[in-house]
Write a structure and sequence with these properties.
Strand content: over 45%
Low-confidence stretches: none
Mean pLDDT: 95
Oligomer: single chain
CATH architecture: Sandwich
Helix content: under 10%
CATH topology: Jelly Rolls
CATH class: Mainly Beta
Distance between the termini: 19 Å
Structural class: mainly beta
Radius of gyration: 14 Å
Number of helices: 0
Number of domains: 1
Number of strands: 8
Amino acid sequence: MTTKVFRLLPNGGPTSGMQPSDFTDQDAFTTADKREVNHTFFQTEDGSTLSGVWECAPCREEIDAYPVHEMMTVLAGSVTLTNADGSSDTFTAGDTFFIAKGTQCIWEITETLRKYYMICE
C-alpha cells in the first residue's frame, strides 16, 4: 500500500461525491427520509481502519456493543448518545467525540447528520 496525505472533503470524493450506503437498518429510521450516503477516503487492506464522511437521516438504534472504536467530527446535524447509565450527550456541528468498541448506548440522530469518521477495529 502506498501511504499518502489526503484531504477529507465534506461532500465526499472530488469526482464521485457521496454514494448510497446501508450501515443503518431500515427499521431504525424515524422519518420517511431514509437517506444514507458515505464516501470512504481511506481503508486498510484488511478493512480494520477506515476514514471518510457519512450522512444519515434521523434514526434511532439501541446498540448492545458498539462494533468498532470510532472518532467523529460532526459537520452538520445532531446526534444524541445515551449511555447505559442513562446519561446522555448531544453533539452538533463542530463537536468531536469518541465511542469505544463495546460501548452500550442508544444512538439517535435527531437532525440529518453529516460527520467525518475514523474507525479502528
